[in-house]
């Protein structure tokens, strides 16, 4: 009988759970709300309860379950200790040990962005690669570094914090992290909208963007595809900054591929093609010709990656 | 009896060799010239001959020798294949296999800058760390990434090519690599001299630097230490660009420490202190407080690291 495991992605508003086979088939998925009250102290209790209920409801054989993988929104060290998950109200404690105590299952924990990268490598846009960089362009910009098939955690759990690479040292507005010039300020969904407002104020050129009441990354990419000059300027700027950050990363780890996900990546190959074009101008000869892929798992990347975390290589 | 190994550093003009104990004692070191004629086809023959001679001269017991580690000036893949060592005249071939055939000893091969990083981790400025970045500020700027005690090679052997991270996208002069704006153009010994000439041409300020006929990185740092304003401006610029590149690296791999070597690092703690100061302004909170160390092994880093390569973790 094929063994099973749970892949769990704890977010600020909901906890996503998946029941997987060892080979990567998602048998079932569901969500529960994230109870943030009392410093988030009920979150893991709720996770344990819903896992136990699933086992009972489906008559799963306990001995057949490998364990539980969990992704959390914050830095995590190799042993599963979270440092500060602001969105969950958590301080410093060992999530692996706590979950093992509550469920009796072996547990491994990773940062949510890192885990999503692992998920894309396993069953998504990064299938077939063992060394890749995933960048998630959403409300913010997250990242994950996969080397030799495993997450690179870093000495303080802060490896892959790609969104906070400085790409524009002369920027004056501050990023959410408190410093100015981060990739997140230019390549996130919120970043490109902010840049659009700046450009529309500054430029006198006509643009379809001026007619849109609630600008969004999607609207900007759509207008760019229709040939709108200002929208294309914005898309180029985003891709140029993203390519610069990816070129920095390439000179450090020389990956096989880049996988781009998050809401902004719905723009599709326009995003990857243009980013690749700028990237090629920014790197040594030996680092050219990397593969640029779109993520495929969407919001499920986290549960896939968490499952892979506990399954191992 | 403690086991022994050879650590070998093949450079464009000479091959450095060291005989080491497994625990890192350098028993003897010597050099032979690098014969670059005939596409460098005699280099490994010469290495094999001098190794055999050493074994005979010192009456070493063959069974007591672990093997040979080699550093070469160019990209090398995990299996020991060199891609293009321009300085040696080498094309594409497997240096490990060739050396094993010529000597009968197990051989491992790495890029010279990566191997130097491993050497500094083992017996130099990086002792006690398992995750570090080494930057060598010499005629060019080289780098090495050590993760979990081992060299990160990268998918094409180009990991740690730190000197070619773009730090100034608006620079117009080209680096040796053919692109403009690389760290090497600002943080190498040749880079700071070039920047000095630029600044002296542009500025009308008096400076001791104007009296020096043959400007060097050392002279610039010496003048800076004596309080010369223009020299300090140049040192600040170098440290600012270096710190920017190190901050990029930190957001990717989150190392424990940075080790700075090469001729420019003879400037000492002035270099590390100022670079650390600028670095702290460029990184996320979780990446602050890294250790900044000076390299300690000088030109021997390569033979130490090559020895460690064959000894393993």
UniProtKB/TrEMBL annotation, chains A, B:
UniProt record, GO biological process: glycolytic process
Alphabetical UniProt keywords: ATP-binding, Kinase, Nucleotide-binding, Transferase
Keyword hit for Membrane: no
Keyword Coiled coil annotated: no
Molecular function in Gene Ontology: ATP binding; glucokinase activity
Family as reported in the entry's similarity comment: Belongs to the ROK (NagC/XylR) family.
Protein name in the entry: Glucokinase
Protein source organism: Anaerocolumna sedimenticola
